[in-house]
Design goal:
This protein has two helices and no strands. The chain is mainly α. The longest helix is centred in the middle third of the chain and has 11 residues.
Length: about 40
Amino acid sequence: MPFELKLPNDETKAAIDDALQRQNLVSADSATELFDDLEI
């Protein structure tokens, strides 16, 4: 590999597990609403 491989930290592992189990997901009716909810 032309780059260093890194294992995900505990927070990232938890987020991946949640996504795979479809838990704690954020949804919105539009990109604007999503960005507003995420405060970005």
